[in-house]
Amino acid sequence: MADADNELPDEAMPVFAWPDAELFLASHYGLSGEIEAIAADPPSYLVRYDEVTSRLDFCSDPDEARQFEAEAALLLHMHPETGRIEGPQPLETTEGDLLCAFEADEDTREGYARVCAFPTGAPAPASVDGAVLGGFAARLIRDLAAAAEDARDEEMPALWSASDLRQAGPTVVKILRQVNHPAIRDPIAKAMVTALRRVQALGSDLRSQLIHHHPVSRELVGTVTDTAWQPTGFVDPASLGEGWVVASLAAICADLLLERPGDAMAFLPAVEAFHAELPLVEADIEALWPLIIVRIGLLRAAAERDAAIGDPDDTLWLMRVRDGFDRVTGLQPAMMEAAVRHTLDWPPRPLPDFGPLLPEIDPEKIRLVDLSPASTAFFDGNWRDPESDWRILARIAWDTKMGATRFGEYRLSRGHAQRDGHAENYALHVDICLPAGTVALAPFGGLLQRHDGRLLLNGPEACLHLEGLDTVLADGTALFAGDRLGVVAGAEGSVGGLRIRLSREANLVPPLFVATGDVGLWRQLAISPSVLLGIDADAPQPAEQRAFVRGWREHVFDATGRPFIDLTGGAGLLGHGHAGLADAAYHQWLLLNGLLSTPVEAEFQAALLQRLPGELDTVVALTSETAAMELAQQLGERLYSEDVPPLIADERRTGFGRTGHGFWAFDAGETIPDIVVTGSPVPGEPLAAVVMRRSALPQDLELPQPDASMVACRLGSTVIDLLDDPDLIANAADAARVLEQALTHLTTASEGRLAVSGAGLAPELSVSGLSAPDLAERLLQHGVIASALDDVRLQLIAPLCIARASLEVVVDALSHILGIPAPQAEAVDEAHQEEQDLQTDTETPD
To answer: How many other C-beta atoms can be found within 10 angstroms of the C-beta atom of residue 622?
Structure first.
């Protein structure tokens, strides 16, 4: 190149053009077809002919020409016949060369050219499943390694690509030189420097090998199946080259985040699929998110450069990469790395060493409080009080003045009302009661800061958040491990409260509670304060979250505190967790259980007979409803008469007021049955009964001995006595009416798909086209538990105490499953009023 002082004026500079593409292809390759220029320097062209698409690339640099030759040597081993993913295939010139060298003439420069035919296949649709791309990229890396091994004897030079993220620093510096606006340039540069420093710290731990640097959907072709598009090949040879293995995955992830701006976790399926095919290592996981930022930063820098020089490639693309860059740089890197680790079920990084936070305290005197759904500190719905957790903690800490909540506990008080399982009730902190004035020391070195009433100790590997601590230290004080932080706030002799949170990242504040779906993510980021307290303050994690551990009224709660409406009959008549039943069972267990023919059994028999017509005077209490029905049928055969066959009333589901129209279903008729079979009035206790007229039985007939336990009989008597509650009976009548009318509406609206039999709070359902077990599973997804009687019939058995709100949940769930609108509560009440008006008109005398 001439010196600047000796440069020719512009009009004197010779201009050397590239060859005309159409003439060049015809003369050197014997090709003709539709030619489309690609914006590139040196120029490239797409050539379409005979349903084949090829690409013509020019270059003038001998080093770049050697890259063309190396790519050709590799691509020849990526043919479908090898069983590998297909790449573009190099075409020979008319003289049989894969690289075409041409000399300069009076109009054109000298240089080199190559032509590659794209693999056949359909282009990718607008949106491709990230898992498909991630798995493909991993398989492609494996195939490229195998192809390079096959081509090792061809002495091909190492392949490099302009997309190599190992050169991202110099590349972005070069690009940003042409972006003069600081407000645009500086945020890009800052984000790139921060991300690249994180990557560079990993050094040689990052694996390098031959990869495809940009295997995104627009660079691929594939086949269309009945379900989806599947990639089968790639079209751009310039993206082949040595690089970090994880850089190929980062390119896909960056593309997915740009395509799906509303989903910050859109890249995770690609990560999971890539890992399944080509396992990642620790360094890959730490580098992935910074490399995603680097990739998007490069894209934005290039788009801003094009806009700055007056050659914007695409205004919409510029706006997309600007938005994408702002979104990804606004996310917490530690959070995104934790999301990757959680997706791959990868263990958190090892914890650093911590010193004690409260060295003056004897850890053995700290009493832990159980606030989980299985806690016996909760009863009779007291968890609904927002202050219940604090009250229980204060009571537990009363004796020793030291008590603590548990880390990683699903709090019942925060989850009991959330039916969708999204309640934020998993504790990421510990609250501890301590004597006021207790000294706290820095468990690690760091910088002390104050923020929103909290004290923060920011260290290189952890951040401690404390509330309830008094300190004289100034904001910004640097502390070493073991330095005094402050004292627990409070008057002398009183008990103070300290709230402790601990995270792995500086300035990362774990929320007090998270939802079940976010637990795995935050377990990667939040550290249990147990490491500071010297005790195991972690709640045991439930082996099975769906295991039911508590019941109250019509609800049962799983191990995470999520409520479900129990319509299996397991709630009995009074509902789960009834304090009166608990008291009766406790006292009877203290006295005696297990003997038969006792006064307790006689009390149950007497209580049951008081609820039946006087003609029925004999009770046999059994532990099996099936056995009770079989006994009734056997007795009926002994009583059978051709003139008047015996009447057996099966009240196993309808008795004790469940119809809402009387204590027994047979009350609606005028005939008193000869035999009545009842189910258990007690939740979870087998206590069926057969009631009959003793005088109607043959004198020599011996009835079977009752086999119900004393506790069961005591509970049965208690339930029957409690059924005198007028509010309970009124609620049952209202609930039965609401459920019957709602099911009637759904039956009509479903146009015959839903069939209902039975009455009151114990109907049976069947849905055409949906088996009863499948219907039960669909209801469970809506938080309703029901039992399939067989493959066709589903039974709902509600307690008398069921709330209208719960019935609305049940009806809404059925409406959703059937795909029809649910009846409005006002419509049900209007229908009830019309019924009452009609009944009044009918009863009014003329």
So the answer is: 23
CB of 429 closer than 8 Å to CB of 418: no
Q: Reduced to 3 states, what is the DSSP secondary structure of residue 125?
A: coil
Report the half-sphere exposure of 587 (CA within 13 A, side-chain side): 10
Quick one: three-class SS letters along 652-687?
A: CCCCCCCCCCCCCHHHHCCCCCCEEEECCCCCCCCC
Query: Do the Cβ atoms of 96 and 30 come closer than 8 Å?
Result: no
pLDDT band at 638 (very low <50, low <70, confident <90, very high): confident
Yes or no: say if 85 and 139 are a contact pair by the CB < 8 Å rule.
Answer: yes
| Listed range (191-195, 416-420, 658-662, 832-836) with the worst mean pLDDT | 832-836
CA distance linking residue 332 with residue 846, whole number of Å: 80
Please report the pLDDT score of residue 611 as a whole number: 94
**Residue 80 pLDDT more than 80?**
no
Nearest to 502 by CA among 354, 313, 324: 354
Task: Specify whether the CB–CB gap between 423 and 383 falls below 8 A.
Answer: no
For residues 811 and 735, give the distance between their C-alpha atoms in angstroms, rounded to a whole number: 12
Task: In whole angstroms, give the CA distance from residue 631 to residue 639.
Answer: 12
Per-residue pLDDT of 543-568, as tens digits, reads 887 789 999 999 999 999 999 999 99
Check if the beta carbon of residue 680 is closer than 8 Å to that of residue 572: yes
Q: How far apart are CA 299 and CA 253, in angstroms?
A: 13
User: Residue 744 and residue 756: Cα distance in Å, rounded?
Assistant: 8
739 contacts 813 by C-beta, under 8 angstroms: no
pLDDT digits (tens, 9 = 90+) for 768-778: 999 999 999 99
User: Alpha carbon 592 to chain centroid distance?
Assistant: 48
User: Which CA distances in Å does 534 have to 244, 249, 589?
Assistant: 43, 42, 40
**Alpha-carbon gap, residue 631 to 633, rounded angstroms:** 5
Q: Quick check: helix, strand or coil at residue 84? A: coil
From 370, 203, 178, select the one nearest 283 (Cα to Cα).
203
Handedness of CA 125, 129, 133, 135 (dihedral sign): negative
The DSSP bridge partners found for residue 212 are: 240
CA 262, CA 265: separation in Å to the nearest integer? 9
Task: Tell me phi and psi for residue 233, to 5 degrees.
Answer: -165, 170
Cα 251 to Cα 416: distance, rounded to the nearest angstrom: 43
- Token code pair at residue 153: 């004897």
**How far apart (Å, rounded) are the C-alpha atoms in residues 522 and 425?**
13
**CA gap 220, 229 in Å, rounded:** 11
CA atoms of 733 and 726, how far apart (whole Å): 11
Determine the angle formed by the axes of helices 772-781 and 804-818, rounding to 10 degrees. Answer: 120
Phi, psi of 111 (to 5 degrees): 175, -160
Backbone angles phi, psi at 716, to 5 degrees: -60, -45
Q: What is the pLDDT of residues 150-170, one digit of tens each?
A: 887 667 778 899 899 999 999
End-to-end CA distance of the chain: 120
Q: Torsion angle, CA of 516/461/195/345, rounded to 10 degrees?
A: -40
Check the CA dihedral 81-83-86-87 and report its sign. negative
pLDDT band at 846 (very low <50, low <70, confident <90, very high): very low
CB count in 10 Å sphere of residue 169 = 16
Dist. CA 710–CA 717, nearest whole Å: 11
When comparing pLDDT for 6 and 67, which is higher? 67
At 592 the pLDDT is 86
pLDDT at 511 over 70: yes
Q: For the chain, which domains are there?
A: 19-117 (3.30.200.20), 159-347 (3.90.1200.10), 363-533 (2.70.70.10), 579-724 (3.40.640.10), 727-843 (3.90.1150.10)
Contact 108, 57 (CB under 8 A): no
User: 3-state class of 436 per DSSP?
Assistant: coil
